[in-house]
C-alpha cells in the first residue's frame, strides 16, 4: 500500500502556482526525499499532506484514506522548520503536552514520552529547557515530539537545514534508523543533494513541478556523466589522437577533460594515450551533478 498517494495536486497563492499538478506515490516503509531549490514548493506540499493547508485541486490519500479523515492525523508526525515548542518548558514537558493533545494519559503517556525521546536520541537532555538547547538538540526534541503518538508516517521539512555537517549527519542517521529499524515511512525535504543519495526514492521539484523522479542511482545514470581528467606530457599529441578517434574533450593548460559514455570507456582512452599522459583520474558522476543538470544549477 502507498503511505502517500498524490495525483495532480495543485495549490496557488494568488498568482503564484506553488504546486503545479504533481503526482507521486510514497510506498509504505520507504525513505522518500523531496529535493528542490528554495521556493520549489516543498513546504507547501508537506503542509498539504499533513492537512495544515487545503489544496485547490487534485487527489491526496494517506494510507488509502482521505487526508481529512480524522484518523489520518494519528498516522502522521510532522516537523516543520520553525517548530513552536515552549522554550520555558523542558523537552520532556513539551513532548508530554503533545502526548496529552493526542489523548494519552497516565502510564501510557509516560511510556510514549520515554519511547519517543529514546527513538529521537533526546534522552540525555530531556530535562533541560527547550530554549537552552543547541540547534541539533532542538531538532531531536522536535522529532521526539512528532513521534509521541506513534505515527506510521514522519514528515520532515528540511530537518538538517542550518546545522553544521557533523550535526546534520547525526540527525540524518537517526532519521534513517527510524526508517530502517522500525519501518516508519519517512518523507523529508532537503536542498542538500548528498543527503538524498541515501533515500529509496527521490523526487526533484522545481517551480512547483516534478522535474525528475527515481532512485538516486537512476538519477545519476540519467542526468550525470562520468568524466576522465588527464594531464598530458605532450598536449599536442594528445589532442591529435583524441581528434583522430573522434573523442570529444575540453582542454585547459595541458589538462584534458573527457566526458565518458560509460565508465569502461576510460580503459580504451588510456590505452590510446598511455605513452603521452602524465597522470589521469576518472570521476564518477554524482547526484550533485544530476541535481544541477535537472534544476539548471539553482541549488547549493
Ligand atoms: P520550498 O519549501 O520549496 O522553499 P515553498 O512551498 O515554501 O517552497 O514555496 C513555493 C512558492 O510559493 C514560492 O514561490 C513561495 O514564494 C510561494 N509561497 C509560499 N508560501 C506562500 C504564502 N503563504 N503566500 C504567498 N506565497 C507563498
Mean pLDDT: 92
- Just name the CATH architecture of the largest domain: 3-Layer(aba) Sandwich
Q: Could you estimate the helical fraction of the residues in percent?
A: 25-40%
Q: What is the string of SSEs from the N terminus onward? A: EEEHEEHEHHHEHEHEEHEHEEHEH
Describe what you observe in this structure:
The protein is of the alpha/beta class. It folds into 2 domains: 220 residues, P-loop containing nucleotide triphosphate hydrolases (Rossmann fold, 3-Layer(aba) Sandwich); 60 residues, Alpha-Beta Plaits. Helix content is 36%, strand content 29%. It contains 11 helices and 14 strands. A 6-stranded mixed β-sheet has the order 6-7-8-3-9-10, with helices on both faces. Strand 9 and strand 10 form a beta hairpin. Helix 3 packs across helix 4, helix 3 packs parallel to helix 5 and helix 4 packs across helix 5. The two termini are 34 Å apart. The model has no long low-confidence stretch (mean pLDDT 92). Bound molecules: adenosine-5'-diphosphate.
Any key phrases for this structure?
300 residues, alpha/beta, Rossmann fold, Alpha-Beta Plaits, 2 domains, four-stranded antiparallel β-sheet, 11 helices, binds adenosine-5'-diphosphate
Short description:
This protein has helices spanning 42-49, 72-75, 91-101, 106-119, 135-147, 165-182, 193-196, 216-223, 235-245, 265-273, 287-295; strands at residues 2-13, 16-27, 31-35, 57-62, 65-66, 76-79, 153-157, 185-190, 201-206, 209-214, 226-232, 250-252, 255-260, 277-283.
Amino acid at each position: 500500500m502507498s503511505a502517500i498517494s498524490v495525483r495532480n495536486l495543485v495549490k496557488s497563492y494568488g498568482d503564484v502556482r506553488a504546486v503545479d499538478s504533481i503526482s507521486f506515490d510514497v510506498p509504505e516503509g520507504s525513505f522518500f526525499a523531496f529535493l528542490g531549490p528554495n521556493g520549489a514548493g516543498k513546504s507547501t506540499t508537506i503542509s498539504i499532506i499533513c492537512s495544515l493547508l487545503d489544496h485547490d485541486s487534485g487527489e491526496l490519500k494517506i494510507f488509502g484514506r482521505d487526508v481529512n479523515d480524522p484518523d489520518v492525523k494519528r498516522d502522521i508526525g510532522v516537523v516543520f522548520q520553525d517548530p513552536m515548542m515552549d522554550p520555558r518548558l523542558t523537552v520532556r514537558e513539551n513532548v508530554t503536552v503533545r502526548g496529552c493533545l493526542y489523548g494519552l494519559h497516565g502510564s501510557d503517556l509516560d511510556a510514549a514520552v520515554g519511547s519517543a525521546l529514546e527513538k529521537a536520541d533526546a534522552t540525555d537532555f530531556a530535562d533541560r529547557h527547550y530554549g537552552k538547547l543547541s540547534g541539533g538538540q532542538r531538532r531531536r526534541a522536535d522529532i521526539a515530539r512528532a513521534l509521541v503518538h506513534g505515527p506510521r508516517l514522519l514528515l520532515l521539512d528540511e530537518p538538517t537545514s542550518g546545522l553544521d555537517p557533523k550535526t546534520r549527519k547525526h540527525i540524518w542517521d537517526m532519521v534513517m534508523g527510524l526508517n530502517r529499524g522500525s519501518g516508519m515511512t519517512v518523507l523529508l525535504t532537503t536542498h542538500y543533494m548528498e543527503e538524498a543519495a541515501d533515500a529509496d526514492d527521490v523526487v526533484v521539484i522545481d517551480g512547483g513541478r516534478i522535474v525528475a523522479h527515481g532512485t538516486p542511482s537512476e538519477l545519476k545514470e540519467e542526468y550525470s556523466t562520468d568524466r576522465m581528467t588527464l594531464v598530458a606530457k605532450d598536449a599536442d599529441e594528445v589532442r591529435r589522437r583524441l581528434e583522430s578517434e573522434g573523442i570529444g574533450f575540453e582542454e585547459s593548460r595541458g589538462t584534458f577533460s573527457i566526458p565518458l559514455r560509460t565508465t569502461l570507456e576510460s580503459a580504451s582512452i588510456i590505452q590510446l594515450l598511455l605513452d603521452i599522459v602524465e597522470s589521469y583520474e576518472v570521476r564518477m558522476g554524482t547526484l550533485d551533478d544530476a541535481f544541477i543538470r535537472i534544476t539548471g544549477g539553482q541549488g547549493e
